[in-house]
From TrEMBL:
<dbReference type="Pfam" id="PF14166">
    <property type="entry name" value="YueH"/>
</dbReference>
<dbReference type="InterPro" id="IPR020260">
    <property type="entry name" value="Uncharacterised_YueH"/>
</dbReference>
<protein>
    <recommendedName>
        <fullName>YueH-like protein</fullName>
    </recommendedName>
</protein>
Length: 80
């Protein structure tokens, strides 16, 4: 499991990334937002970013912040 620090609602918060290499999926959790998601290695980038950003919009204070966090999550999962 990887832990990344990121700014959420103007505070540094932890974001947890679990990778299951055997079954080819990730689980992402942001405890401060009471938010998590699951996705596989082969999900389409654009669809994944849209799904993550839509689910985050009401929790992080708007569309721009949700898109920014979704892009960060995508980048962190691709570097693993």
């Amino acid at each position: 499991m990887k832990i990344r620090k990121t700014t959420i609602l103007d505070k540094q918060e932890d974001l947890y990334i679990y990778e299951n290499k055997k079954d080819d999926y990730f689980v992402i959790a942001v405890p401060v937002l009471e938010w998590s998601t699951y996705f596989t290695y082969d999900e389409n980038k654009e669809e994944l970013l849209e799904r993550i950003s839509k689910s985050l919009q009401g929790k992080v204070g708007g569309e721009a912040a949700a898109i920014e966090l979704a892009i960060k999550i995508y980048g962190w999962t691709r570097e693993m």
